[in-house]
Amino acid sequence: MDRRTPREARRVGLPAAAALLGSALLLWCAAAHAAGEASGLTPQLFDAVVGLHAEVPSSSRTSAYLGTHRDGAGIVIDADGLIVTIGYLVTEATEIQVRPSNGKPVSASLVGLDNDSGLALVRSAVPLGVKRWRSAAPARSTCSSRC
User: Fold this and answer.
1) 3-state SS of 107-133?
2) pTM score, two decimals?
3) For the chain, the helix, strand and coil percentages under 3-state DSSP, each to the nearest 5
4) 42 contacts 29 by C-beta, under 8 angstroms
């Protein structure tokens, strides 16, 4: 019998899901490399990925099931520090910090939250010194004709 609370079960499930997604990405990249295709994973892409930390009041509507201390990631989409992330990370947050791979935590603010897509925009208080990611090649579909 599992005696974990639903919250504890989610804490175990999220890292497992992240590991699964990471493994799938690595397998896809290995297959693309073996087939002689460029994977598009460049150092510039990895620099555009930043950590995010959000503090949410315990009295908030979502704190009971999402917690009051939330950690996740986002992608820098412009040179001034605009970041796209998953919306639930910053929903009802009173404090947001960005953790770039090349520096100390920086304060940030919520720009917008789109409930339809589940995405949010956050802006760092100062430019992060991270170049936004641009694909060198046009996007190609790897979908077969059955998609």
Assistant:
1) EEEEEEEECCCCEEEEEECCCCCCCCC
2) 0.63
3) 30, 25, 45
4) no
Name which of 77, 71, 119 is nearest 98 in CA terms: 71
Segment 91-119, tens digit of pLDDT: 999 999 999 877 789 999 999 999 899 99
Structural domains in the chain plus CATH codes: 1-41 (no CATH), 42-132 (2.40.10.10)
Token pair belonging to 139: 């996007």
Helices (H), the chain: 6-34, 43-47, 63-66, 87-90
> CB 126: neighbour CB atoms within 10 A?
13
